[in-house]
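$ fold --in a.seq
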Amino acid sequence: MSALCLALSSNASASLIDAQQVAINYDVSDEQLSSKGSHAAFTKAMAEAKQAIDEETKGWQEKYSEIESSDNPIQYFHAGNVAQLESTDLIVRGNEMMLRVQVEELFSKFGEKIPSEVALSIRQLRISVAKLRMSITNVMDMEKQLRPAISADKASFTMTPDALESMKAATKNAYFH
């Protein structure tokens, strides 16, 4: 129950890193343009990373459902889990941003030379990573809703004779034009 781990699995973490590495190492040379095999290796690597990330997303959606259907959802968000959840969110957001930058670099470098199946596999991977981020964000939003509201220190004013004299003095010295 409260032992639910709100961290990224090692498989999904490795897949995020693998996807970045594949994107970095992709090169569109004349040799590769004529060879379907090199594109197949790239799209296969992207598909494997996408599959692992999709499985992780499904896991996060299940965690969300379990927490939501619980009679006492706050029990899932003890200090350790919240710290893991925040770290997981940062990791996924950082990886998503790095992947976006690498893909933009890839498209600016090679542009129209990139075959459509490669572009499609990249797009599908980015969509999967965005879905994972949103699943984690949904769990974080639930935690924020359950968090007790922190009462803000409200300014209090007690009318004392000294305060009354100070207000009178301040009002007397004000000039209105």
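$ fold --in b.seq
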Amino acid sequence: MDGTTWAFDAKYVRIRNCPYPVRTVITKQLDAKGNLEYRHIYTSFSPNELDEVETILSYRRRIDIEAIIKADKYGLYLGNLRTKNFWGIWAYLLVAFSTHNLISFFKHKVLSGTGIEDLGIQTIVKKFADIPAKYEKEQGKMKIFFPAGHELARRFIQGKQDNHKGSIFPLEKKLYN
């Protein structure tokens, strides 16, 4: 694979109550201290479908995707589902993913051009949602007032004043003391 990692096909293993043999791929890797580490992966892909290097690389891509999902899951506080019922879990995940999509939309449409559009989901949920704001509605236009002492609110207002043409929301934003 590279200068510090090697992949080998080991053997097929029979697992009880499994109708087909399972292939074992072993990796040998040098860690930062120069010690050898051995790991193995069980797969149902034959060597004709994925050779040992492709198997390891596809597994690493899967690990990367799982890490992204885990980070987003904890950003939305999905660590502990409070039900074992299928429909309860389904409804909870529907609300959580809808919330995630709304926050992503907010990042893309509202925060773009403010200098804080690269905040993570967890930061937005923890810090941005805590900003106390006041709003008034007059003549069909909503005015939002943010506290002057809040750093994210100041950056948001300043960024939106610098880039007001890109906003899709007809909002007047001001700071208050």
